Amino acid sequence: MQISPSILASDFANLQSELEAVGNADWAHVDVMDAHFVPNLTLGLPVVEALARVSPIPLDCHLMIDDPDRWAPGYAEAGAGSVTFHVEAARDPVSLARAIRSEGARAAFAVKPGTDFAPYEDLLPEVDMVLVMTVEPGFGGQSFMADQMAKVRQVRSAVARHGGDVWIQVDGGVSADTIGQCAEAGADVFVAGSAVYGADRAADAVEELRELARRHG
Ligand SMILES: O=C(CO)[C@H](O)[C@H](O)COP(=O)(O)O
Ligand SMILES: [Fe+2]
Predict the structure, then answer these.
(1) C-alpha–C-alpha distance, residues 158 and 119, integer Å
(2) Model-level pTM greater than 0.95?
(3) How many angstroms does the Cα of residue 135 sit away from the middle of ligand 1?
(4) Which atom number of ligand 1 is nearest to the Cα of residue 136?
(5) Which atom of ligand 1 lies nearest, measured to the CA of 141?
(6) Counting ligands in written order, which one lies closest to the CA of residue 139?
(7) Number of domains in the chain
(8) Directed axis angle between helix 68-77 and helix 93-102, to 10°?
(9) Which residues sit in the known binding site for a divalent metal cation?
(10) CATH number assigned to the domain comprising residue 90
(11) Residue 200 belongs to what domain range?
């Protein structure tokens, strides 16, 4: 059970100390948005390169961008430990996942709430993780979509059928109130922005979420 706090909910004026505040987490989730794939703009490659230099934990980059085939391997090269692209935006997901892995990072694909997983099941041997979005991508602080738990169960069964160690990540509205159902459905990597950075002590929130996930997993 791994926790990946989303720095989207942190203080962008103090990113290094915000990363250090969640040094007990497994990953730091970095939301890259390009104002095309989603209607919001956050940060890009130069900032990720700088964060990779100072972060005490590996970066988990979630690319909400058009044309990931062109850009995603660069994030692996910049030092991200895991790079997630959206299948809705990828032209050749197999080659893309291989390019990310060949740069030494874990490769993952994400599915939006309205995207079926079944057409992408054959990609499982090419990736290290599947991200099931539990909000419409674009903004932090949205309400958790419990109807996506059926998809998490579907991915968990597909992973069991295929064998191999593919992690299942959930992202969006994950909190102390919702993490239990995610773990029960089969998720094992949990992104949390507001629930971690909105807490009095971010590190305590990370421990609490991990404990709740373990209890329900
Ligand atoms: O990908 C994302 C939004 O597109 C974020 O990672 C996600 O929303 C995390 O924020 P919160 O936990 O506040 O929902
Ligand atoms: Fe994200």
Answers:
(1) 12
(2) yes
(3) 7
(4) 4
(5) 13
(6) 1
(7) 1
(8) 10
(9) 29, 31, 62, 171
(10) 3.20.20.70
(11) 2-216
